[in-house]
């Protein structure tokens, strides 16, 4: 039983594709993680049965979907009333613009004045109506009955509503055609009947396009998860390759370092010998440029004369050395004779 606590390689890949990428939020798990960690695959499968892709529980996700459905319903209702309100305001603005340039018919004036009065009284009635949550004092002391007295006559209101329906249909048709031309510029040249048919199908087309966008977004999300997993895997493989290359380079470098040192030593030795030979060649070149054949011959003659003069000086020095040696032998006798001569010279000087 303990062996079933780990999932097989095929089961691990299936769990990753089914649970981690679709039902659970994106998680950076690899198949090796499921193969090495105890009970992790079963835990992921259990979580995938109780959680959706956003991480919420299925019950909470259902409640959230219902809440969003109600929000969209209220939003649709509000948008519908807001569109009608803006269309009516646009009709009034267009009426004010036309009064500055053209002469309108009495029916047209009556319609817009009745519409404006009816709209104003309706808005004021809504403002002075008490809130449903708590009782509030009426605005300016006015009651709803006081404002309803300002409503146009019922005949004018019924006639205005009939005309307003036609005007709003025409205005909404223009807006729908404008939206259609914005969505499909090629439909601008179509007839009104064809445009109306396209507008009737425009909501379905937009829903389909929105669904396609959501599907594309989901696919992109899945592709991003796969890309992150592949990036992590490729990064680990590259790091392993770099470590292997580093070991190979270090081993190769230690093996060939001695050979490189020997080659460098031989190179330096040869380079040093070449430099010595080059210096010797430059020295010989300088000597050959300095001492020509005539200069060498003259130097030879000078050397011969100097050597002859040196020999004569050596002969004279040898004779002088012999004389000195003789004087050295007769030095005592000469000293005695010098003393006698000195004494005789003094006696002679004294007699004189």
Automatic annotation (TrEMBL):
Pfam families (alphabetical): HAUS4
Residue ranges of coiled coil: 320-351
Keyword Coiled coil in annotation: yes
Keyword terms of this UniProt record: Coiled coil
Source taxon at top rank: Eukaryota
InterPro entries: HAUS4 (IPR029327), HAUS4_met (IPR026214)
Protein name according to UniProt: HAUS augmin-like complex subunit 4 isoform X1
Gene that this sequence comes from: LOC103600936
């Amino acid at each position: 039983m303990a062996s079933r606590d780990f999932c097989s390689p095929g089961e691990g890949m299936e769990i990753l594709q089914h649970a981690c990428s679709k039902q659970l939020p994106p998680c950076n798990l690899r198949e090796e993680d499921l193969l090495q960690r105890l009970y992790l695959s079963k835990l992921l499968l259990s979580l995938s049965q109780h959680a959706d892709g956003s991480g919420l529980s299925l019950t909470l996700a259902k409640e959230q979907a219902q809440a969003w459905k109600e929000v969209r319903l209220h939003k649709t209702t509000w948008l519908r009333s807001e569109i009608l309100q803006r269309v009516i305001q646009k009709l009034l603005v267009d009426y004010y613009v036309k009064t500055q340039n053209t002469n309108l018919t009495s029916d047209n004036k009556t319609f817009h004045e009745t519409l404006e009065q009816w709209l104003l009284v309706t808005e004021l009635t809504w403002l002075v109506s008490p809130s449903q949550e708590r009782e509030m004092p009426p605005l300016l002391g006015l009651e709803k009955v006081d404002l309803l007295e300002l409503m146009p006559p019922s005949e004018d209101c019924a006639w205005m509503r009939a005309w307003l329906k036609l005007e709003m249909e025409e205005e909404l048709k223009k807006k729908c055609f404008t939206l259609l031309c914005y969505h499909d510029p090629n439909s601008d040249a179509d007839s009104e009947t064809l445009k109306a048919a396209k507008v009737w199908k425009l909501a379905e087309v937009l829903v389909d396009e929105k669904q396609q966008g959501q599907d594309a977004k989901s696919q992109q999300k899945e592709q991003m998860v796969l890309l992150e997993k592949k990036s992590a895997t490729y990064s680990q493989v590259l790091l392993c390759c770099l470590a292997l290359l580093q070991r190979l380079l270090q081993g190769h470098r230690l093996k060939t370092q001695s050979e490189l040192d020997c080659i460098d030593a031989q190179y330096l030795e040869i380079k040093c010998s070449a430099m010595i030979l080059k210096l010797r060649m430059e020295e010989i070149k300088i000597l050959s440029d300095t001492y020509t054949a005539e200069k060498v011959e003259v130097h030879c003659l000078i050397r011969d004369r100097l050597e002859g003069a040196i020999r004569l000086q050596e002969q004279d020095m040898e004779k002088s050395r012999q004389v000195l040696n003789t004087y050295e032998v007769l030095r005592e006798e000469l000293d005695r004779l010098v003393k006698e001569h000195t004494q005789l010279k003094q006696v002679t000087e004294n007699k004189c």
